[in-house]
Amino acid sequence: MPFEYTAIPAPTRGEKAREARTPTDRYARALAAELNRMAADGWEYLRADVLPSEERSGLTGRNTVYHNLLIFRRLAAPAQEEKAPQRYLPQPEYPVAASPARAPEPRPHIPDAAAPRPADPVAGSGVSAPSRDDHHQTDATPPAPRKSPADQD
Q: Region Disordered: what ranges (predicted)?
């Protein structure tokens, strides 16, 4: 049987009552009231402990202080594993933006005249491959003759 535990500070002062005449009786009454309050919530008294705690004293000093604690236990709630297992999806580290993401804008059509020429398959030549529009272009200088004029005689 799994238990869960809790610790509360023990009362430091007694409760005044007509029946409680001595300080010990007053303290016992305060302690019984605390035990009954926890029992009403289903907690079972287990023990009282005196535990040390290091606390600051001034700017740089530290002192050890002892605290009186009351320890209680009760049966833990049934584990969730006995029920149908729940699947947890991982959550983003930062919250998602409130507005939805915009759809990507379509790429505009680039006409052939504005499109870059594809590179020559021969790497490093620096000459681009001829495009389909190259046959419409004319060179500024005519091609050199194959034979010299003296050879035509």
A: 80-153
Strand order in the sheet with 61-75: 3-9, 61-75, 44-57
d(CA 25, CA 33): 12
| Predicted confidence (pLDDT) at residue 5 exceeds the cutoff of 90 | yes
* pTM of the predicted structure, to 2 decimals: 0.47
What's the mean pLDDT when you consider all of the chain?
76
Mean pLDDT score, 76-81: 68
pLDDT for 34: 93
Three-class SS of the chain: CCEEEEEEECCCCCCCCCCCCCHHHHHHHHHHHHHHHHHHCCCEEEEEEEEEEEEEECCCEEEEEEEEEEEEEEECCCCCCCCCCCCCCCCCCCCCCCCCCCCCCCCCCCCCCCCCCCCCCCCCCCCCCCCCCHHHCCCCCCCCCCCCHHHHC
- Residue 134 backbone dihedrals phi, psi, to 5 degrees: -70, -25
